Amino acid sequence: MAQTRVAAASVPNNLESFWLPFTPNRGFKRAPRLIVRAKDMHYYTAGGGGPVLDGTAGLWCTNAGHNRDPIVAAIAGQAEELDYSPAFQFAHPTAFELASRLAALAPGDLNRVFFCNSGSEAVDTALKIALAYHYVRGEGTRTRLIGRERGYHGVGFGGISVGGIVNNRKFFGSLLAGVDHLPATYSREHQAFTKGEPEWGAHLADELERLVTLHDASSIAAVIVEPMAGSTGVLPPPQGYLPRLRAICDRHGILLIFDEVITGFGRLGYAFAAERYGVVPDLIAFAKGVTSGAVPMGGVIASDRIYETFMRGPEHIIELFHGYTYSAHPLACAAGLATLDLYRDEKLFARAKALEPRFAEAAMTLKGLPNVLDIRTVGLAVGIDLASRAGAFGLRAYEAMERAFRDEALMIRIAGDTIALSPPLIVSEAQIGEMFEKVARVIKAVA
Length: 447
Ligand code: PXG
Known about the structure:
Distance between the termini: 43 Å
Strand content: 15-25%
Structural class: alpha/beta
Bound molecules: 3-[O-phosphonopyridoxyl]--amino-benzoic acid
Shape: globular
Helix content: 25-40%
């Protein structure tokens, strides 16, 4: 099906109108990187170029690989049957089916699924549910939200407020009031070149106790963290850190939110990182891998306890004043179901887990190359820190990204001077080898 559309994909003659997100627009428009088609592990570029190896599962989302036939067929079939139906006061069957499947994948009593369309919306939804939960149970003084330095929770005002990335915050005014941050868990001094979760750093969870002492538990609604911080360069949690955070939250009646937008759907070898770390949060935010990137979708999985807290009061009254026109969109739900089937049938989460040691070993072969300051691996993800060029933070990695694409036919992600790789979970051992050989040549080229 994808094949028939290739001929139609041509190079646009005007690049000016599209303002690209999170992209230096002028440089891009001088030398655009245009993708016109994808299949499994590869992209194909305008003018008949490619294959380009996808080292990043798109933006951490195409976990089942690109243009998988069952997902494409499910979207096409759904589009013919039901293009749209409202999710306020009405619903369609596929939404219930997908919610049940997600509840079955999620740990503990996380059984209630609220749908939205992106990770940013998922985060803002989770924060709002947390605030409203305390309000409806009569603890409306709990309004403070705690995030973490170097956290990425999307780009909504809630997400950037609890997030910890200066450039995502400093341009945008006063943000949400009443937010505080835990310290980031990364310390190069203590954990450089660690495979998996570093031994050092569990004590940083105790900073939450300090914040409780400062603000008082009666003012704190929730703590939100990524189990593994992805966007700021793959920061696996220190051993024991997440259980400690859970214990402190429990002690003080604070909800724990895991932002699993990246870690969900197999990236760390499990349906959710919560399972890998043996910690059940109160809310999980998800997106990306739920449809393998094929249709936008996000959502929040809440505990039975939270859901039931809302199910009081007169039955004709809306329990949660929140939702989106496209919540549980039929195309997204159909794509989601087909994607979950693929994950199950091809055992892709277990596959990621089985490949983790090989992936980590291949990643560590880059140690010793010029400018490589640290390599962190966990699941099928790696962050490679490069030394910055003098006076030009981010330039070396930017050059690496361009060279990887043009000279090595490899797509990589960059954050500052960190290279991140997170291939689709269908990646072969040979492709893992190929990927790191290409990255090695690129790192030498930008030395
Ligand atoms: N939470 C987390 C943990 C994320 O990683 C979002 C929320 C927001 O999702 P949406 O769908 O609103 O973009 C994200 C998104 C990168 C990269 O290269 C990461 C994301 C998006 C784009 C690029 O690290 N994460």
